[in-house]
Amino acid sequence: MFIRPLSRQRSPMPHQRDDAAGHHTGQLHIAVEKAAAGANGPAKVCARDVKVFYGEKQALFDVGLDIPDRAVTALIGPSGCGKSTFLRCINRMNDTIPTARVEGRIEIDGEDVNDRGVDPVLLRARVGMVFQKPNPFPKTIFENVAYGPRIHGLAANKTELAEIVETALKRAGLWEEVKDRLHQPGTGLSGGQQQRLVIARTIAVSPEVILMDEPCSALDPIATARIEELIDELRSQYCIVIVTHSMAQAARVSQKTAFFHLGKLVEAGPTDEIFTNPRDARTQDYITGRFG
Ligand SMILES: Nc1ncnc2c1ncn2[C@@H]1O[C@H](COP(=O)(O)OP(=O)(O)OP(=O)(O)O)[C@@H](O)[C@H]1O
Ligand SMILES: [Mg+2]
């Protein structure tokens, strides 16, 4: 494997709700006993006391959140509340912003992603990212997907590489549409197809976590439905975190929802509870469209 072996030690155990600093509240032990896939499943990513500054300006305040494995976690909240900033902490994309400074801990399977021994390039293969605007490389469809496995040495030969590409395109639900045009440019696909190509490119390097920052906001309703179906299929294998401005989308695709407001995590919990019985008035106002 191209990744430094991880300690398989699991992070602090699941719980019903996180408070703003990530401390467990309520019915913890029951949740632990029943730990299963979904909002209360074992945490893959644990954030504790995460603060992010851009120069002097603080964008995130003491965020604590457990993100379950094999489930979809939705990050919601008004524009500018820090959703993308938080997402970028998980794969250290904030490192690429010169003014950004991150404090606190982000652990994946108990390992601090900011540890000196963690190579950000390898981390970003473990933690793939899909952006709002589909961004295929200016290469062929095949090369878009083959690129990552090739640079990480995941295939022993051309046949194996072709198999990885085919499997990734099949999992991304794109194979049937592109199998006869693999050597045409990826940029020639429709927006929805490009987004599935980007997802195929992401999963081709066998990530553990997939971050999606408003992956459907540039797509029409049909392409959006296709991506949502795909997210639902992928969740059995990955830890997925999605930022969305669509309450309906968060409710459809996620098992856990975290609501951010003005750089703070207001509350997080099982999606159905957040949408039907939020604890905080700000969450209630947001999900009912009173602000944002
Ligand atoms: N590169 C940057 N340099 C300086 N400030 C930034 C930078 N990126 C984000 N910010 C600021 O940090 C805060 C959080 O921004 P962020 O992009 O994380 O919000 P968001 O919740 O993703 O918003 P949106 O829903 O509009 O995408 C905002 O005040 C924003 O202006
Ligand atoms: Mg954003």
From TrEMBL:
Residues 1-25 are annotated as: Disordered. Keywords: ATP-binding, Nucleotide-binding, Phosphate transport, Transport. Residues 45-287 form the ABC transporter domain. The keyword ATP-binding applies. It comes from the Bacteria. GO terms for molecular function: ATP binding. InterPro entries: AAA+_ATPase, ABC_transporter-like_ATP-bd, ABC_transporter-like_CS, P-loop_NTPase, PstB-like. This is Phosphate ABC transporter ATP-binding protein PstB. The lineage of its organism: Bacteria, Pseudomonadati, Pseudomonadota, Alphaproteobacteria, Caulobacterales.
